[in-house]
Each structure stands twice: as C-alpha cells, then as structure tokens.
Amino acid sequence: MNITETSTEGLRREYTVVIPAADVAGRVDAQLKEIGKTVRMPGFRPGKVPMSVLKQRYGQSVMGEVLDKAMSDSAAKVVEQHSLRPALQPKVEIVKFEVESASDLEFKLAYEVLPEFEPADLGGVAIEKPVVEITDEQVDEAVGRIAAGRKTSAPLTEDRPAAKGDIVVIDFDGSVDGEKRPGMKGEGHELELGSGSFIDTFEEQLEGTRAGDHRTVNVTFPEGYHAAELAGKAAVFEVDVKEVKQAVEATIDDEFAKGLGFDDLAALKTVIRDRLGGDYTVMSRLRAKRALLDQLAELHSFEVPQGMVDIEFDQIWKRLQDELKAGDAGEDAGKDEEELRKEYRDIAVRRVRLGLVLSEIGQKNNITVAREELNQAVLAEVRRYPGQEREVFDFFKNNPQAVESLRAPVFEDKVVDFILGQVKVTEKPVSAEELMQDPDEEEAA
Length: 445
Hints:
Helices cover about 45% and strands about 20% of the residues. The protein is an alpha+beta fold.
C-alpha cells in the first residue's frame, strides 16, 4: 500500500492510495479459499470446489467486499499515520481499477479535519441569570386559572338574550361550498360565548339569541387551520339554540381543592408553588445558557468543517420548510429564499462552532456521560408522551442508537453547567412575564 498526501488546504486533507494488483488478487483468493472450505455445490465434495468455479460463482461479490475492506483499512491507516482528527467519514473516489486487466487499485481519500484551537479564557466572562420570586399573587392567579377551567352552568335567573360569558346549548350543521364535511356537525354542544373555542366570529354571531332561535352563521376557516382541506375556506353553519345558561364560577375553597385530589386548598397551593418554581428554574437556566453561548460565540472565531455545517444547515432548513408549509414560520414567511439561506447558514456555522467549543472544554475537563445519566434521559423522553409511555420505552429499548443520540444533549448540558460554575453569574430579579419573553422579542423592542 502506497499513501501520498496530495493536498492540505485549510481543514481539507487529500490523499492518493495505491494498492498493488497482486495484493488485491491475494485478498480475493484468500477469501474464496475460506468460502471453499464450507460451501456445498452439486458435483463437488465439500472443500474440493475448484478455484475457477468459486471465482465464477462468488468472484464478483467477494471482489466488492475486498475493495470495501481495502479502502476502509486504508482510511484507518491514513488517520493513524497522519494523526488526523476527522470531522466526518472521508469521501472516497476510485481513480483507477480494472478487474480484467488486473490493474492496481488507486483511489483518493478526502478528509475534513477538526480545527485545532484553544478554548478562550473564561475568567472574564460574566452573565446575568434572570430569576423570579414566586409571590402569593402568582399562586392565586394560577389557582384562578384552574378554577376558570372548572366553571359550571345553571339556567338563567332572568329573561334575557345570550351575552358574552353565557353558555348556549346548540345543534349545528356546517357546509363548505354547499357540501357537508366531516366534523362540522354537532348536537347538544355547550359553547361559552367569548371563549374563542370556535373559529372566527362564530360565537359573536350567537350573542343576542334565545332558546328556540335559529341562526345562519357565516365564518371563514383560518389559513393555518389543522385540517388542510378546510384552511381558508368560507363555511356556513345552520345553528339551533336549544338553551341559554349562565356560567357559574367555581368557589375556591378546601372543597374545590378536594375535588382536584388534594387534602385542602393549602396543599393545592403548595403544589402549584413548587411547579411554578420548577418551571421558572428551567426557564432561568435556559436564559443563562443562552447568554453564556452568546459570549462563547463572541470569544471564539475559527474555521469549521463545511461538511458539518452542511449537515446542520440541512436539518435547520428542513424544519423551516415544514414550518412554512404549516404557516408557522412567523416573520420568516415574508423573506426570500436567498436571504433565508444566508441567515440560517450563519446559524448553522455558529452551532457547529459552539458544539466544537463545548466538546473541547468537556474533553479537557474529563466530562463524560454515565450510563445512568443516559437512562434518566430516556425516562425524560418517555414522560414527554403521556399515554404512550410503553411504546416510547420499547422504542428506545430496541434501538440502542436512539439511546446514544441522547448522549450529545446530555453532554452539552453537563459542560454548560460546568462552565456556569466557573464564570461569574449574577442573579437578576425579573417578573414572570419578563422571564418568559423571547429574548429575540426583547432585542427587537
């Protein structure tokens, strides 16, 4: 085997490898001999099949296996001899090889290697971590939201038409372009006017009705409606009002809490306070992590492997295309493709560079992911799918590569926590609204 370095430009390395024809033929013959020891063919005793027959029957497939193995071994040899740190698998291009003429095997190996860099000094890094102090008012508001979802209804105490906040019991039957569609008919449905649970102006058009009234309601399904065949379509609903009721607010007391499975109202508030604290802690850490990554991005500037950028960009671009099709792309929907590609390629470069920085810091500080931590990550994924826990658990159990895919985010979180423990972190009291606000929206404001 003869290995020649032909190019070293930036992070790209190219090599030409030549394996003599005799070496290739020897590997093929050796593998055919192994096959001949066990293969059974009509007219021949086991182990006595002539080499010419073996070559005729198995030569082509064995040659393919030998070439794959030869190129794989050569790639490993190149990495070892030149102390490479490949970013991805090498690109292989066969330059010359002819079976009939028994020529040498000549091919090219093109690598992209990981950049050599030293992580920046983090001694001067300082970030603000927004934190929220949970107040009794916030807990009471949360209890109030729960109570709002547990309203009951009662007959009207006065003779009057339906108003916003009332509940109308209706039968309805809808059509689009004169055609009845599935899911557009209902009977005895209780609808709170002003709740926004029905589309467009449906609820507004029922204000002022009384029991026994009939209304023809004209509405238009929104462009992003989940049923694509109805999105943007005008619809007509024939509605019969069967009864008008008034909403009755739930009384927030110990009995209310017991109805939710708690000992008393104090126990309910304790659980809510803990859950709010957990939610705010998670969001606070995310905001601190973002601030840290922003500073790490500013402190590091080095070339990154374009192959890794291409993979990251392709993933981002696919998600964006899905969002555009679903009408969920926000302000990106108004940008031209060239502008979007440039913007998201810059994001891909940043992500790859930050990933390399975190990886380098993690390796230098001997940060690893234990098996138990991977198991905890699997359980966290399982809990994300209520009602499908068994299916999700079995998926991970039967797909070890899916479990391994969780290693990178767990490793990243451990490295981020390690860095946050090394830099100066100042807690900044904020309101819950400020904590939950998108940082991009803050910058725009």
